[in-house]
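Budget justification aside, the reviewers requested a transparent look at the raw inputs and outputs of the sequence design task funded under Objective 1. We therefore reproduce one unedited record. The lines immediately below are the C-alpha cells for a 223-residue chain.
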C-alpha cells in the first residue's frame, strides 16, 4: 500500500537536484558476445516518470524471463521512479550489473548513481565491473511550495528509500552514506562498501580472470 501511495505522488520528488531529464531512460537488447546465449538488456540514461512504463513495455515486447541481466549505465534522476524500477526488476526476477555496452557485444565501465542505485538493488543477484562506479547522495526536493513542505516530503522519501533498501536485502548503511553526502555532490562507494552494504551480492566480473585461478564470471555464476 505504501508504495502505491508513493507512485501517486511521483511528480513531487526528484533525485538528482538540478539534473534536466530531457530524455527518458532507454532499454536496448544486447545480443552479441556472451549475451548471445543469455537475455541481456542495457538500461541507459536518466530516470524519470516514463521509465517504469518503458521497462514494462520493453520486457513484454522482448519476452524477458527470470534471470535476464539488466546492465545499468545511469547517473540517476527521480528517486521514486528509481525505487519503482527496482521493484519491477525484483518482481520479474531480473539480475543487475553495473556496466555499459561498447556496441559490439563487449562491456565497458559505467556509472550507476543517485536514483539508479535503487534500481540496481532491485536485482535478485547483483554485481559491478571493477572499474564501474556506484554513487549515492542525499535525497533532494525539487521546487517545494514551502520549506515545511520540503522537509516533510524529504522525510517521507527517506522512509520510502529505507523500506526499499531493506526489502531488497541490502544494508541500510547505504542510505546512511547517502544522507551524509550533499545532493550536489556524489559519494562513490568502494568495493568494500559495496560488499558490506550488500549492494553487490556477487563480487565477480564479467570474464574469468587471466591469472589462472579459475575465478568465475557473473554470467557463469548466475546461469
Amino acid at each position: 500500500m505504501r508504495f502505491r501511495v508513493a507512485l501517486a505522488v511521483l511528480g513531487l520528488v526528484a533525485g538528482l537536484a538540478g539534473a534536466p531529464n530531457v530524455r527518458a531512460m532507454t532499454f536496448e537488447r544486447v545480443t552479441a558476445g556472451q549475451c548471445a546465449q543469455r537475455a541481456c538488456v542495457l538500461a541507459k540514461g536518466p530516470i524519470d516518470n516514463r521509465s517504469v512504463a518503458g521497462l514494462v513495455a520493453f520486457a513484454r515486447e522482448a519476452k524477458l524471463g527470470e534471470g535476464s541481466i539488466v546492465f545499468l549505465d545511469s547517473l540517476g534522476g527521480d528517486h521514486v521512479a528509481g525505487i519503482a524500477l527496482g521493484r519491477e526488476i525484483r518482481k520479474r526476477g531480473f539480475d543487475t550489473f553495473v556496466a555499459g555496452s561498447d556496441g559490439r557485444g563487449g562491456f565497458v565501465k559505467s556509472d550507476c548513481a543517485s536514483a539508479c542505485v535503487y534500481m540496481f538493488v532491485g536485482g535478485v543477484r547483483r554485481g559491478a565491473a571493477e572499474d564501474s562506479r556506484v554513487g549515492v547522495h542525499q535525497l533532494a526536493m525539487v521546487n517545494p511550495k514551502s520549506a515545511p513542505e520540503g522537509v516533510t516530503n524529504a522525510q517521507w522519501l527517506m522512509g520510502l528509500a529505507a523500506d526499499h533498501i531493506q526489502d531488497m536485502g541490502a544494508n541500510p548503511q547505504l542510505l546512511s552514506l547517502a544522507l551524509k553526502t550533499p545532493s550536489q555532490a556524489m559519494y562513490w562507494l568502494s568495493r568494500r562498501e559495496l560488499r558490506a552494504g550488500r549492494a553487490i551480492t556477487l563480487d565477480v566480473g564479467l570474464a574469468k580472470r587471466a591469472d589462472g585461478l579459475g575465478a568465475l564470471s557473473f554470467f557463469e555464476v548466475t546461469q
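Confidence is low (pLDDT under 50) at residues 1-21. The helical segments are 2-8, 51-62, 79-92, 115-120, 147-167, 173-179, 191-196, 218-221. Computational costs for records of this kind are itemized in the attached budget.
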